[in-house]
Write a structure and sequence with these properties.
Blueprint lengths: L13 E5 L2 E4 H18 L1 H11 L3 H13 L8 H4 L3 H8 L11 H13 L4 H4 L8 H16 L12 H7 L2 H18 L12 H22 L14 H19 L12 H4 L7 H8 L7 E6 L6 H14 L6 E5 L2 H12 L14 E4 L3 H5 L11 E3 L2 E2 L1 H12 L8 E5 H5 L8 H8 L3 E4 L7 H16 L3 E6 L4 H14 L14 E6 L2 E6 L8 E8 L2 H13 L3 E5 L3 H15 L4 E4 L5 H15 L5 H4 L2 E5 L13 E5 L3 H8 L17 E5 L19 H4 L3 H14 L1 E4 L3 H9 L7 H24 L28 E10 L2 E4 L7 H4 L1 E5 L6 E2 L4 H8 L10 E4 L1 E4 L2 E7 L5 E7 L3 E4 L5
Parallel strand pairs: 3-10, 4-8, 4-9, 5-8, 9-10, 13-18, 14-16, 14-17, 15-16, 17-18, 20-24
Antiparallel strand pairs: 1-2, 3-11, 6-7, 11-12, 13-19, 20-21, 20-22, 23-26, 25-26, 26-27, 27-28
Helix pairs in contact: 1-3, 1-11, 1-12, 3-10, 8-11, 11-20, 14-15, 21-22, 21-31, 29-30
Length: about 900
Amino acid sequence: MPPITANSGALRYWAKSDRGGFHPVVYHGLDVAASGLEILKRNPGLERRLERATGLESDPVRQWLSFGLAIHDLGKFADGFQGLDKELSARLLGRTITRDYFPRHDTMGWAIWNELIAPAQLEQLGLVPEWGDARDALRLLTPWLLAFTGHHGRPPETANFAHLVAQQVGSETRRDLLTWLGELRELFLPAGLPFPATAHERKFRQASFLVAGLAVAADWIGSNTEWFGFDAEERTLEEYWKKAQERATVAVAASGLVEARARSVAGFGVLFADKTPTPLQRLADEIALGTGPQLFVIEEVTGSGKTEAALTLAQRLVSAGRAEGLYFALPTMATANAMFARVERLRGSFFSEGEHAPVILAHSKRRLALGLAETKTEVDGEYGDGEPTASRDCANWLARSGKSALSAPIGVGTIDQALLAVLQVRHQSLRLLGLAGKVLVVDEVHACDEYVRSVLRTLLRFHATNGGSALLLSATLPGKQRQELVDAFAAGLAAEARSLACTDYPLLTHFADGVVHEVPVAARAEVSREVAVELVTSEAAVDAELAAVLAVGGCAAWIKNTVTDAIETYRRLVETFGAARVELFHARFCFADRHDIEGRVLKRFGPAGNPEDRRGRILVASQVIEQSVDCDFDLMITDLAPIDLVIQRAGRLQRHRRERPAGFETPRLVVYGPEPIPEPAKDWYSAKFSGGAFVYPDTAALWRTARWLAAQGRFRMPEDARSMIEAVYDPEDATPEALARSEDRTQAASMVDRVLAAQNALKLGQGYQRTSLDWLDDIYIPTRLGDPTVTVRFAVAGPRGLEPFAKNEPFRWEQSEVTLRATKVGEKEDPAWEEALAAARLTMRDEGRYVTVVVLTPMGEGKWRGTTVSPEGKRFELEYDRTEGVTFSSARS
């Protein structure tokens, strides 16, 4: 057939163009619709969830999704978009377009539907259900039309663009549009709108988030020119639809968005054939599963085998057809890296042999952690005016940080990647789609602050609504927090959980089929122990403890509450004990150095560490070893911290069976801090820990922690775990008057955090629609609160210009990164290096977006210095040492 000409109706409008070639909007819409249907075909669990969420049967879901996905690029009919290729549009439409490209085509698509098609044309198009009128149709269609047109990762703007629609959609274009929509209706909805009288707007709103994710995924696949090449031959819609379906079969299979078949045999023995289960693991292997989405909260001491129990439950849910995969969310990148290695070995236990079921790591440094080779894919560039095409958008988004892991059968990463699924950021819908139907495992829940817990509760509600189950792992939780988490999950199922009453510990709480079960767990003998506690108030007393353990060939760790305190303590201990005996580990190293230090620490103090490597060693660390890091020390020293964190830190004390030095045969924890006197002054804590007071501002909780530890002189695990937490966070007696204000401030701050979380999080009942926020990239909406941070990349002068500070291959620029507080680093780069920095950015994979590059100049003795500048012109100087990390000099004008 001849190529499309100016007489070819709706086929004249281009969606993609390149060097005079083009692909029509009409065909691209069918490409995306075919991709969406193929995704559903290859993912029956997703189709079941959409049926459950909407109350519709399979055929109506498929019919309406086909129509909606086919019109996702409705806005490209407008003159603003068509004018981006003036030469092509003049040839196809027979006129020169001078309109500016505004608004974006996704927003224009919604505006065209809202102004030209709904409600006046619904009757004409046959898009009114038999049981209602156009208003009924609008209530049901609106949430999904927002999802279809918002296929670039955020909902379209819903401002009044009537005047722009009138300017950019003339009578000829309107005629072509309506003709095309009528043909699509005949192709996909031959019997009209397939919604029964029982269809409910609330369900359609809730399901719109999944629909939006499907639209993004289908558009990415349908926009890939490797699978859907340019085709400008004139065909009927039926003819091209068959071709699009054939291409989609190949494309979706190649994309990896395919549900894997679960292994039929399940249980602890399948995963860990060489291990004897602990009481908790035996319970996980035997407890009766519910019939639908379910929540497990596991509270157990460190070293009790919570991870294996969680994996056992997850594998049973997958095998029973209650879930299609797993995402394991951890508090830090370091803990995610460690868990990835453990889970990767088990992937064959989850899915049938021969299934494509990779384990994917998900966090912002995944490429560095895995040493992945960089891949380059030929993709379309930009439509014009700097707007990226869907295929480039996809390639950039996936390449930047591996967020596709949430769509993989098994993903392991940070909790941040999961929380972003319910925050108002671009592409949250794809994250939510990836998590839907999976088992979401969240580790170290007790370490979440109020903001994170609030967002997590929103995630649990969405996840339950979308058919997913969740496992929450914690050392122990205050009763109120456990109740709130269970209530949030129950709310997602439109259910109500009864009040939790059990105070036993360890404990497994199970919510399934509308019923809560609280199951006490027998304590594991190996982790049941007594830890002696001694409070000391002077550094000299700590030094004496360290000298004693070194004298008998033991090893010790001192966990400090700030990086600055850790560096100062390290320097002092080096003077006392010598550099050969003391090592420093914190988060303020560039990635390459931090990775090396972490490896040395795990090798020396991990489960495989040999006695000679450990002998006579001291590790000074910040909170980086506090959670999920498998280190073991003969003596543990900690700065005074909240009681739950003290418990965590004690978990690194003699956690493995090994021979201990004389005098340190039993666990002993030294807590350094002020004496818990009955009437403390308001600066009771800050006078000793000025920086720590900002990290842990609830002085009353710190005082109650010190008081309990001093009074008891020891604690027993697991018997005392619950009482320790409740004594600090739900005390029966009054708070000392001088500290009451700090308690009030903490409670007020918690309320503010809740409000901010509610502001940033999505509302399930509102559906997928634009809010007051801009739905920017995920770097702009926090998953955790705290001081704003800046990602800094270190550069040094080389023979060919600026080059990465790190020498390790691959990804030298990324390995030169460190995250620093924005209050310590200026927002602008040193103007003296402006030209060299511009050239250096061209050598970066991401062109240096969202980072500040600091040029380091050598100072001698293994030290470097760099400068940044604030918007006000204030200079900030920092120093870098591979042994000590980043330290800051005073700001200079």
